[in-house]
C-alpha cells in the first residue's frame, strides 16, 4: 500500500478494523508520502484488529545517514497522527518501519492499547512511538522491540502515561532529546510505570543537548515499579547528550529538570553505573527523589554517579558518588 492520508474534520466517529498485513513499497521514494497511514485533524478515531503494517524497512535502513549528518533525510514512517483527539489504536502491529514507527503530534486524549512494535536491533532511528506537543497520551499493555527508543517523548509532551510496556531490544524509554531548538515547549507530567525493560542500551532516560539554544523546563517526571533485565544505564539523566559527537560540550545545557521521582526500580544492570544523574552545571536538577532502587551488576550492587544534583534518598538506594571522569 502506498501513502494514505485521512484528513478531518469528520462528522462522526470512525472505526478502522484491520486484520490483514499491509505492506509498504520497499523504496522510500515509492511510498508517495512520508507515512503508510497518516491521519490529520480528526476526532474519535478507532483503529483496531490483528492487522500488521509492514514498512519493509531493511532497504531504507542501509540509506540512513543520521550518524554522519546533523540534519538527515526522513526515510518514512508507518503511522503519523497529527492533531487527532479522543482516539485509540488497539491490537495493531507495526513492523520494520523505515524510520519512526509512529509519530504523534498535537494530539489530545490518544491511547495505544495492546499495540505491538517489532524491528531488529540494528534498524537505525526506528523509535517505536514518538510523542510531541501532545497532552493526555497513554501507551498501555504494549510490547516494543526496535532499533531506537521504545517510546520517546519530545518537547510539549504533557500528562503522558506509559504503563505495562515491555521494551527491548532498543534504546529504552526516553524523554528527549530536548534543547536542540530555541522554540521548544515545556515537558510536564510524564509517568513511566509498571514496565519491564530488557537488553536495551538505556532504561529510563532524560536527555538534553549541551551548547544548544533550548531553555524549556522538564518537570513532574515519575519512573516507578520498573524491572530491568541486563540493561545498560538503567536510570539516566544525561544533560550532555551529544550523539555521534555532532555538538560541543563547551556550554552546559539550559534545560531545567525538576521534580523527578525514581521509585521501586529493580533487576540487573549491564553497566557498573546503575544510576547516572548527569545534570547541567548551568541549571542543576532540583527536587529529585530516589527510593527503593535495587540494581545488580555481575551480582554486586550497581552504583549511582551524580553531578549537579542533590537527590533526596529514602529506602534502599545506592549512595551518590562523584563521576570519576567526564562522561563521553
Q: Would you write up a description of this structure?
A:
With 328 residues, the chain is an all-beta fold. Helices cover 1% and strands 52% of the residues. The protein has two domains: 124 residues, Single-stranded right-handed beta-helix, Pectin lyase-like (Pectate Lyase C-like, 3 Solenoid); 160 residues, Single-stranded right-handed beta-helix, Pectin lyase-like (Pectate Lyase C-like), CATH 2.160.20. It has a 27-stranded mixed beta sheet that branches. A hairpin with a 2-residue loop joins strand 23 and strand 24. The mean pLDDT is 95.
Structural class: mainly beta
Query: What share of the residues lie within helices?
Result: under 10%
H-E string: EEEEEEHEEEEEEEEEEEEEEEEEEEEE
Number of domains: 2
How many alpha or pi helices? Answer: 1
The fourth-level CATH homologous superfamily of the largest domain is Single-stranded right-handed beta-helix, Pectin lyase-like
| CA-based shape | globular
Q: Averaging pLDDT over every residue, what do you get?
A: 95
> Which CATH architecture of the largest domain would you pick?
3 Solenoid
Major sheet summary line: 27 strands, mixed
Characterize this entry briefly.
This protein has a 27-stranded mixed β-sheet that branches. Helices cover 1% and strands 52% of the residues.
Topology readout:
Elements: E1 4-7, E2 14-17, E3 21-23, E4 35-43, E5 45-48, E6 52-54, H1 58-61, E7 77-90, E8 93-95, E9 102-105, E10 108-113, E11 116-118, E12 129-132, E13 135-145, E14 151-153, E15 158-167, E16 173-178, E17 187-198, E18 204-208, E19 217-231, E20 235-238, E21 256-269, E22 273-278, E23 286-297, E24 300-301, E25 303-307, E26 312-314, E27 320-321
Subcellular location: Secreted, Cell wall
GO molecular function: polygalacturonase activity
Family: Belongs to the glycosyl hydrolase 28 family.
Amino acid at each position: 500500500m502506498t501513502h494514505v492520508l485521512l484528513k478531518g474534520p469528520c462528522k462522526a466517529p470512525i472505526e478502522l478494523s484491520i486484520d490483514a498485513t499491509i505492506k509498504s513499497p520497499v523504496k522510500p521514494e515509492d511510498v508517495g508520502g512520508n507515512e503508510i497511514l497518516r491521519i490529520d485533524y480528526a476526532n474519535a478515531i478507532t483503529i483496531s484488529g490483528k492487522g500488521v503494517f509492514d514498512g519493509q524497512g531493511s532497504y531504507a535502513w542501509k540509506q540512513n545517514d543520521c550518524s554522519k549528518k546533523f540534519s538527515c533525510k526522513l526515510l518514512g514512517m508507518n503511522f503519523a497522527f497529527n492533531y487527532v483527539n479522543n482516539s485509540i489504536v488497539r491490537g495493531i502491529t507495526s513492523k520494520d518501519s523505515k524510520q519512526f514507527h509512529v509519530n504523534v503530534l498535537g494530539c489530545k486524549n490518544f491511547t495505544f492499547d495492546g499495540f505491538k512494535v517489532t524491528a531488529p536491533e540494528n534498524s537505525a532511528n526506528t523509535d517505536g512511538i514518538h510523542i510531541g506537543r501532545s497532552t493526555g497520551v497513554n501507551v498501555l499493555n504494549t510490547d516494543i522491540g526496535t532499533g531506537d527508543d521504545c517510546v520517546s517523548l519530545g518537547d510539549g509532551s504533557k500528562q503522558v502515561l506509559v504503563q505495562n510496556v515491555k521494551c527491548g531490544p532498543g534504546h529504552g524509554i526516553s524523554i528527549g532529546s530536548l534543547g536542540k531548538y530555541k522554540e521548544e515547549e515545556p515537558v510536564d507530567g510524564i509517568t513511566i510505570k509498571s514496565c519491564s525493560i530488557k537488553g536495551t542500551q538505556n532504561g529510563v532516560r532524560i536527555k538534553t543537548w549541551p551548547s544548544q539554544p533550548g531553555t524549556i523546563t522538564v518537570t513532574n517526571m515519575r519512573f516507578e515499579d520498573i524491572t530491568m533485565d541486563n540493561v545498560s544505564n538503567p536510570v539516566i539523566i544525561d544533560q550532555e547528550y551529544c550523539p555521534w559527537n555532532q555538538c560541543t560540550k563547551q556550554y552546559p545545557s539550559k534545560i531545567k529538570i525538576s521534580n523527578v521521582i525514581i521509585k521501586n526500580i529493580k533487576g540487573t544492570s549491564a553497566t557498573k553505573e546503575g544510576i547516572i544523574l548527569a545534570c547541567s552545571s548551568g541549571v542543576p536538577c532540583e527536587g529529585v527523589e530516589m527510593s527503593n532502587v535495587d540494581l545488580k551488576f555481575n551480582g554486586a550492587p550497581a552504583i549511582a554517579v551524580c553531578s549537579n544534583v542533590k537527590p533526596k534518598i529514602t529506602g534502599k538506594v545506592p549512595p551518590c558518588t562523584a563521576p570519576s571522569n567526564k562522561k563521553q
